[in-house]
Amino acid sequence: MPLLGKTWSAMDAVYTDLEGTSAEDVGICPLREPTGGGVGVAARARMESSLDAQNLISISLRKIQSSRTQRGGIKLHKNLLVTYVLRSARQLYVSGNLSQTPPQTPRPREDATAGLSGSLTELAHDLYNFPGLESDTWQHQQQQQAPEEQQAPPGADSELTVPGVLWWDSNTQSNQKTVLDLDTHVVTTVTAGHFLPDCCAHGRGGKKRRTDASEPVGEPSDFGSVPRKRPRTEEGCEHLDGTDVSHLMSVLGSSGLSEFVSWQQTDLEQIRTVQSISLRHSGLTYGSWTRAIEAF
Amino acid sequence: HLLPGPGGDMQWCFSQVKGAIDDDVAEADIISTVEFNQTGELLATGDKGGRNKNQPQFRSEYNVYSTFQSHEPEFDYLKSLEIEEKINKIRWLPQKNAAHFLLSTNDKTIKLWKISERDKRPDGYNLKEDDGRYKDPNSITSLRVPVLIPMDLMVEASPRRVFANAHTYHINSISVNSDNETYLSADDLRINLWHLEITDRSFNIVDIKPANMEDLTEVITAAEFHPLQCNTFVYSSSKGTIRLCDMRNAALCDKHSKLFEEPEDPSNRSFFSEIISSISDVKFSHNGRYMMTRDYLSVKIWDLNMETRPVETYQVHEYLRSKLCSLYENDCIFDKFECCWNGDDSVVMTGSYNNFFRMFDRGQHRDVTLEASRENSKPLQVLKPRKVCAGGKRKKDEISVDSLDFNKKILHTAWHPQDNIIAVATTNNLYIFQDKVN
């Protein structure tokens, strides 16, 4: 483990402005008011705090991912705490982005009121929020925008090949989707898109791609599946760090979060609960949690 | 900087250190728990390799008494999970006869061990040779009475009970009841009550698992029986609350009798507020009137009669508050520090980083920071108080926050129940310090 001193200097570049020298510093600051005249200063502050939020999101997801491979199984306590950070960071990021663009739709119900429950499965629920759950077909959405462009042409139908991407959005009604590209570790927000997961956990007959939304199933499948690697899209995003995606994929192997989910699965009460709860809450979360990691 | 105590000022001196000297620490040697028995005569440590070491006291020195492998790594085939052999907690049972008993637990299984001495052996069997072979009965011409003759002291540890298969989640605490018949074990979501004699079943007394795991917002982090009232226990949560439960109220103690919670200071709110408010340890005072909790940055003393806020709060390393982001990144923010009381509940102790540990004298409102290091390990060398410089100009002998070694952490400390002798565990070394006057 690196000494804090080394870590500290590496973080300097990102955190200096926000950390400041005040003894009352509390780490990452929430979005601050513009300190000077003009839009430029305000935008910079927001961008920095967006970068911090992105960084925190990326770090947190990596922690969750690496906890899967730890000896002794997934530590529920630690992962719960990490999800708290993740949700706070995501909230900051999303609110930072929303304030940069005029809202397209009525402001979605604020996550803050939904609360930072921080549960793992709720996180998974947000990671894969399927707005078109009732619809029969899923659609790809081509991600063509650079991070600065927040507008996606509404109703765009073109094929989307998005390797190693995690999606989540702030609520079911919103047309906005926040995306973490695990190749570049850049978080972007896309509006008005639909999303197809790499593999549908609840696909019929184990079909992995573009399956119809099916009936809720009690158990996730496809643990053994290896996500098909898709061609990378052109990304004009800066790299926040040099983590190698192929390394991530090899670490994950093909089993996804099998320990976590199988641990959950074999808890008999959980199995009973799973079977009685709808897709959105249960099968979706298990499957989507698996998908979230397999999408690496 | 001297901590006044009964009979004058206390000066802490180095007494002993156990463990390997080199910096390359084997994972299995990492100490994971330290516990004195009720008389202070024995000191037990558990490590990540599943071993227990017991050291008896002789002329104020602790020497290895017995070492045994308490737990082995296991594999749960159903869940495809490896179960670590790391000892999470050790608790001694009060001594009833010549043998010593302790409970030792890893993530899933609790074991009751009997540690007994053997210093005599029988000699002069009629039917057996000395090496154990049976004699030809025809060769026996006379009878004699076997006698017990002294032998080199041998300490045997044998598992007497195995309490298994009662925890789905990771066990974080065990606590022996004052009735000496039952004990509790706590995992992230449940607390079970056991009888020491019965291994095939336990009684679930707390269950905070939500019907839908999506709704999970907190986990149990520590639990302890009241030292005097056998019906009372407390458990702490990851949200910084402590619940006191009375087993007489109901069979299932999901509903607490008291809830101890301090409102959060909104000016300190950050991304990491939830993490640093998570309680890592809870300990009753010996007299049963107070309890102490440890969260990431502070130690709090609660009066059992007041639920709204602690009566005392001590900052362990407040200078880390501005470094929480880095500490999150390198996982240090998840470190679980323990805390302990001294024998008369006047002083509390807890660990920190850079092999520092802190003592807070409740009566005198003074505190001291000391260091466990090989450099200060000459026999009877007095420990010099240390100081961390949080910012500004660093004085001589002070250490700046950025120079702290976060790999060197003291998570486990123990105080002798009667005397001023303390055991402090660094990563793989156990230091024993004592008061000079002692």
TrEMBL record, chain B:
Keywords, ordered alphabetically: Repeat, WD repeat
Cross-referenced PROSITE patterns: PR55_1, PR55_2
GO terms under biological process: blood vessel lumenization
One annotated Gene Ontology cellular component of this protein: protein phosphatase type 2A complex
Superkingdom field: Eukaryota
GO MF annotations in UniProt: protein phosphatase regulator activity
Listed Gene3D superfamilies: YVTN repeat-like/Quinoprotein amine dehydrogenase
Assembly, per entry: PP2A consists of a common heterodimeric core enzyme, composed of a 36 kDa catalytic subunit (subunit C) and a 65 kDa constant regulatory subunit (PR65 or subunit A), that associates with a variety of regulatory subunits.
Family statement: Belongs to the phosphatase 2A regulatory subunit B family.
UniProt protein name: Serine/threonine-protein phosphatase 2A 55 kDa regulatory subunit B
